[in-house]
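Reply to dn_fold:

You asked what the input looked like. This is it:
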Amino acid sequence: QVQLVESGGGLVQAGGSLRLSCAASARSFSEYAMGWFRQAPGKEREFVASITSNGGNSLYGSSVKGRFTISRDNVANMVYLQMNSLKPEDTAVYYCVAGFYGVGPSELGDYWGQGTQVTVSS
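and this is what came back:
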């Protein structure tokens, strides 16, 4: 069982930055791929980013590539999403995801957090 708690969301102006954090309670955290999805009102869930269990590889959705950076700390059991050059269309609830067999655009993982709201004003 893995419990995920996101934090760091909030209101920011377009062009600004936010850093999301995800705290994981799992003895075997370093065995899980981690990632972030988001969902805006009235829209489908969207893959944002993922990172392999050892942090060696990462993957990004096309809409955030070059602006967002995912990272992890396997000692602290944390995952981060650094979001720069934010746009109003980045407004959504952001979810942290853990997947034993991977996390990606078509791999929804095994455990999801409750989500944190990010709102970008124009």
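Residues 80 and 105 are 18 Å apart (CA to CA).
Hope that clears it up.
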